[in-house]
Design a protein that fits this description.
With 226 residues, the chain is α+β, with helices and mostly antiparallel strands. It has helices spanning 9-17, 79-86, 95-103, 127-142, and strands spanning 25-27, 33-46, 49-61, 108-118, 168-174, 177-184, 190-196, 202-208, 219-221.
Length: 226
């Protein structure tokens, strides 16, 4: 049971994000996307300190942003998830938890945009490799049923996209400026695109193919809960 006065975990996450040596990127503000401040943060360290970091933004998707009550905006839920949303607990819950439970009704673009920083340049820090890492992570964690991986994310013979180059070069808009990037456009479930950032690092996006028609793929510096 979570007490009513439990702190919002997003506050602690926000403190960790200031460690990023470069600006965190997101998709440009658009009616179909809502940033609920759900940011995944990962890092690596060695004897000299941090050697890599990444911040991944999750969005709520509104297929019809003009009418949020439109059923088209609802996610496909299994029975267990539906019950957890509809259950009313006999004790009060913190507002941030209630908000999060209600947000489960709607589809989300899980860790869709990732900003990655490496202290030292190498093949691992190239846009093509970083994009492949991001896409592999999304497929392994969010498309297990579609790819018939079973219950354990590491079970099964999932193709490792990290060993494959990006499909081709493509123009990418970042902060209103067109730059050269790379894309991975052959996976049946997701589309991936990425590019180097002016101040170092790489921004990548891995998005569900079924939802691409609702999304404008253009990057900008993220402001908290934009």
């Amino acid at each position: 049971m979570v007490p009513e006065d439990a702190p919002d975990p997003r506050l602690e996450h926000a403190k960790r994000l200031v460690l990023m040596p470069i600006p965190i990127m997101g998709l440009v503000s658009q009616p179909s996307l809502e940033d609920p401040d759900m940011v995944g943060f990962h890092y690596g360290q060695d004897s000299r300190g941090y050697n890599e970091m990444s911040a991944s933004i999750t969005y709520t998707l509104w297929r019809n942003p003009a009418d949020r009550a439109d059923p088209i905006n609802l996610a496909e839920l299994d029975e267990q998830t539906r019950r957890s949303i509809e259950t009313v607990t006999p004790w009060p819950r913190p507002a941030w938890l209630v908000e999060g439970v209600q947000r489960m009704r709607y589809p989300k673009l899980w860790e869709a945009v990732r900003t990655t920083w490496h202290r030292e340049a190498s093949e691992r820090s190239s846009p093509a490799r970083v994009l492949a890492e991001h896409m592999n992570y999304i497929l392994m964690n969010r498309y297990r049923r579609e790819r018939q991986l079973g219950g354990n994310v590491w079970d099964g013979l999932a193709p490792d996209l990290r060993s494959r180059p990006a499909n081709r070069e493509v123009a990418v808009r970042i902060d209103g400026i067109e730059v050269q990037g790379v894309e991975m456009d052959k996976n049946p479930f997701v589309y991936g695109v990425g590019a180097s950032l002016e101040r170092g690092g790489v921004v990548t996006a891995v998005l569900p193919r079924d939802e691409l028609k609702y999304i404008r793929i253009e990057f900008a510096k993220r402001t908290s809960a934009q």
